[in-house]
Amino acid sequence: MRIAVIALGKIGLPLAVQFADAGHEVVGIDVDQRAVALINDGVEPFPGEAQLQEKLAAAVADGRLRATTDYADGVPNADAIVLVVPLFVDDASWEPDFGWMDAATTSLAQHLTPGTLVSYETTLPVGTTRTRWKPMLEEISGLTEGKDFHLVFSPERVLTGRVFQDLRRYPKLIGGLSAAGAERAREFYEAVLSFDQRADLPRANGVWDLGSAEAAEMAKLAETTYRDVNIGLANQFAVYADSIGVDVYQVIEACNSQPYSHIHRPGIAVGGHCIPVYPRLYLSTDADAEIVRIARKFNASMPERLVDRAASTLGGLEGMRAAVLGAAYRGGVKETAFSGVFATAEALRNAGASVRVHDPMYSDEELSRLGFEAYAVGDDVDLAIIQTDHADYRTIAPADLPGIKLLVDGRNVSDAARWKGTPRIVLGKGQATD
Asked: If 0-12 CB within 10 Å is exposed, 13-18 middle and 19+ buried, where does residue 23 land?
């Protein structure tokens, strides 16, 4: 097949490489000229994705994959087009911002030719495939969906850093606007993906047709919103456990020892491209989902809650030197999308502290570009807050943070034995200890 992949980011590029690795001709389309040039040289533009560099280099060398900025080069006569353009959410209104996706869809439609399968993999509010993309594609292209081309929704379900592993591990969900479109999607994804055998699933791993685009859209939102709500509940338990001097991690371990409880871990922040965003996409079409709204707001409040605890413990933070340990949204990943570092630093500044940020994966210059003054381990500091569960912070000790009066561990990664004699707060571990 000839396949076009629109948007060669951290999901789109591995997908394009996967399709090429399965033996198909792939053209990747992206507006970033630098990324396109690197890809055509067989060089990954964002290191960190397992197996990507070697698979990309092989696909480019064999002529199975190339990249372009020109939709007229990649879209016409494609058998299938997969679109993975980012969808943003307005921080104030929580409404989706379709700007980039509208632009990509317009360019796609201008060059769409008959016989093509169009699959949107970007997570969408329920109903978007049918009520937004279908009329837009038809109006601009002059073609009729279900007759001249087929449109489906098939959400990506992978994590950056392990995309190829996840593509094999999880069923590929599809939802068409017609039975014929769904069948085309099934044939396509079965031709480009392979699946691990999983005895734990209710049916064979592979391509799962959910019967409609709306069902597939809701499935992706539901699985991610579940995680946000679950973390919100874990955070609620952690805050209460702190107030009564109970170790919430022991409580959660006990609860999860039977098969009906799956409580997640609490933490200072929920970050990344998915979990903080998709509940808001869900709320954009189900405004009555108060459980979802409350959990999202509670999770968003966690940085300020922990800064308030630090202020209460120290008698205020005015003039204090604070270090936030970790800019990334999760350990071992060089990514700050919706990271708690921003809210944590803001709360510290609002409390009167001066703030610097440390992250072993970022240079001082990179932290500066993020708007932070870099902190170097060994510099004097009054307060430190562990925001990211990097492996480096498991062994951090008071000697690494000269002058420290309080450590706030928002991820439960620090070693209690190393902090004997120095005040330390761990979210969900009860009162401050020393």
From this structure: exposed
Residue 411's contacts (CB-CB under 8 Å, 6 or more residues apart) are: 267, 268, 326, 331, 386, 387, 388, 389, 393, 427
272, two tokens: 């990344």
pTM to 2 decimals?
A: 0.91
Secondary structure element (H or E) that encloses residue 218, with its range = helix 213-244
- Convert the pLDDT of each residue in 317-338 to its tens digit: 999 999 999 999 999 989 999 9
Do 150 and 184 form a contact (C-beta atoms < 8 A)? Answer: yes
Query: Using CA atoms, how far apart are residues 430 and 427, in angstroms rounded to an integer?
Result: 8
* Strand segments (E) across 92-223: 96-97, 116-120, 149-153, 172-176, 207-209
Instruction: Write down the pLDDT at residue 91.
Output: 80
Half-sphere exposure of 418 (CA within 13 A, CB side): 13
8 Å CB contact between 396 and 414: yes
Distance CA 321, CA 163 (A): 40
The whole-number pLDDT of residue 64 equals: 98
> Using CA of residue 392, residue 395, residue 400, residue 401, what is the dihedral sign?
positive
* Amino acid symbol at 321: R
Collapsing DSSP states into helix, strand and coil, what is residue 382? coil
Cα–Cα distance, 266 to 302 (Å, whole number): 10
Residues with pLDDT less than 70, the chain? 431-434
User: Residue 332 corresponds to which tokens in the numbers above?
Assistant: 């071992």
Q: Which residues are catalytic?
A: 220, 274
Closest CA to 138 of 112, 174, 117, 115: 112
Buried b / exposed e over 102-137, threshold 16 CB at 10 Å, is eebbebbbebbeeebbbbbbbbbbbebbbebbbebb
CB 179 within 8 A of CB 352: no
Torsions phi, psi of 350, nearest 5?
A: -65, -25
- Structural contact between residues 324 and 356, judged by C-beta atoms closer than 8 angstroms: yes
User: How large is the C-alpha radius of gyration of the chain?
Assistant: 24
Contacts of 401 (CB under 8 A, 6+ apart): 323, 377, 381, 384, 407
* Cβ neighbours around 43 below 10 Å, total: 14
CB atoms within 10 A of CB 412: 19
Residues 170-225 have pLDDT tens digits of 999 999 999 999 999 999 999 999 999 999 999 999 999 999 999 999 999 999 99
